[in-house]
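Researcher: Quick test of sequence recovery. Tokens follow.
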């Protein structure tokens, strides 16, 4: 029997035992570093596809799901809602959808763990259900803003009650059929828009969502691909409620995980090329590659076709000289590199002049205040960095690692720490690296392809 407690283990096996403390030693010689890699599967698409399948008309199959804490929690949540999730080989599931009105009608408490994406999508999906649900998360997630999802959902008729503080989890949902209408999202973020799209499919009439920035559009693509009409312009989406068709989807490689590998490569190997295969090339996710190209790296994106609604292909990266000074700004570029900004700040340490990241105030509302934690990280490596109101400025300084460094509980900052440790030539014990498993438990093994590492 698939209970919520065991479903993730049935799909992925037990979580790999991850060391939390690791000593980063000397980088490997050029010839011993990889020339080809395939990054971990995409977390954002894994989460969206499993939630979409839970709603779809029929049984969907999703292959190659991202095995990480966030998707494990997502599968648990769906199982608790009475959705039939069945393991079908490694990281592959079938999910039999049901009308949202037929989701568990008894009280169900859902814990999204660390994932704002899961919590926001589930809030919106269940707002249009018929049961009574509570959505919560870990301490970090309970501190993150939910108002951009709660406010427009209320405008569509949702009955939501914040149980502790305004605009924060935990939130109780008393499901009701949502009416159609027009709502606006003020943040540049993709998540409220995606969340509202899940609410729209079961609403009583068309839903129009006004937005500020065309950020990642995985949900829009998945909905259209499964037969739901979504009209889109730069600032507006219009959805006609309809039940999505069941689907068969292979999850493409995560551009964020590809960016991590590319950052390790750029930190380590002048001249040589690294090819990253089967990467999602959605242009709203590839801002890291645009930014390092603007800094003088050689980057080629080679599409090979599509996995379902997403373009997929190979990314080739190399560099011949130092990276250039640059300004990384503008809502569109920032959104398409939002999770890679700490990696870019780490690479900036060896640029030939200052690197400024602007228009990125939303970094303050991530797993940690990523402007503050990225600056603390750079400072710990002796790199000059200071915060601006909406970003940061890095003044290149050769990184020098401290003997021991305690990292914040934030996977994106852990990945940036790996890059800095490599740039520093090793010699640092990093503590708190297990947080990598939020999105990519393979990251430590990937780092070991570039430098000697020892669990402590
Ligand atoms: O929609 C998503 O799947 C995500 C959107 C981004 O958040 P914002 O939309 O809040 O910028 C990103 O930081 C997060 O990792 C995943
Ligand atoms: C912030 C992230 O995800 P979420 O917002 O889903 O917690 C992330 O993966 O960096």
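Model:
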């Amino acid at each position: 029997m698939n209970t919520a407690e065991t479903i993730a283990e049935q799909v992925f096996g037990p979580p790999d035992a991850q060391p939390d403390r690791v000593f980063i030693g000397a980088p490997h010689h050029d010839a011993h570093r990889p020339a080809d890699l395939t990054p971990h599967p995409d977390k954002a698409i894994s989460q969206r596809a499993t939630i979409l399948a839970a709603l779809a008309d029929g049984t969907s199959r999703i292959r190659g799901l991202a095995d990480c804490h966030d998707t494990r929690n997502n599968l648990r949540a769906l199982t608790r809602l009475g959705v039939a999730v069945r393991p079908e080989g490694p990281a592959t599931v079938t999910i039999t959808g049901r009308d949202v009105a037929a989701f568990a009608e008894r009280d169900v408490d859902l814990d999204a763990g660390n994932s704002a994406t899961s919590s926001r999508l589930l809030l919106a999906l269940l707002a249009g259900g018929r049961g009574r649900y509570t959505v919560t998360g870990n301490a970090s997630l309970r501190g993150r803003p939910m108002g951009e999802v709660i406010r427009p959902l209320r405008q569509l008729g949702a009955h939501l009650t914040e149980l502790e503080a305004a605009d924060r989890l935990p939130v109780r949902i008393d499901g009701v059929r949502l009416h159609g209408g027009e709502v606006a999202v003020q943040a540049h973020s993709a998540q409220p828009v995606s969340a509202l799209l899940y609410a729209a499919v079961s609403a009583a009439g068309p839903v129009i969502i006004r937005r500020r920035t065309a950020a990642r559009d995985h949900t829009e693509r998945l909905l259209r691909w499964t037969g739901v009409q979504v009209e889109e312009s730069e600032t507006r989406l219009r959805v006609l409620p309809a039940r999505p068709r069941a689907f068969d989807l292979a999850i493409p490689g995560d551009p964020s995980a590809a960016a991590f590998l590319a950052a390790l490569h750029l930190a380590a190997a002048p001249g040589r090329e690294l090819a990253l295969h089967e990467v999602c090339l959605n242009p709203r996710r590839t801002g890291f590659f645009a930014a390092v190209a603007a800094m003088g790296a050689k980057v080629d994106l080679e599409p090979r076709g599509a996995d379902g609604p997403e373009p997929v292909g190979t990314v080739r990266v190399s560099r011949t000289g130092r990276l250039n000074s640059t300004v990384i700004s503008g809502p569109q570029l920032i959104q398409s590199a939002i999770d890679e900004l700490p990696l870019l700040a780490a690479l900036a340490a060896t640029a030939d002049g200052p690197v400024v990241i602007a228009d990125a105030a939303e970094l303050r509302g991530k797993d940690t205040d990523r402007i503050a934690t990225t600056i603390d990280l750079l400072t710990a490596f002796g790199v000059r960095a200071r915060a601006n109101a909406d970003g940061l400025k890095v003044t290149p300084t050769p990184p020098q690692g401290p003997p021991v460094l305690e990292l914040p509980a934030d996977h994106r900052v852990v990945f940036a720490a790996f890059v800095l440790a490599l740039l520093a030539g090793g010699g640092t014990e990093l503590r708190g690296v297990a947080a990598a498993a939020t999105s990519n438990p393979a990251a430590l093994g990937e780092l070991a392809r570039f430098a000697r590492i020892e669990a402590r």
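Residues 114-117, 339, 366-367, 412, 439 surround phosphoenolpyruvate (ligand 2) (CB under 6 Å).
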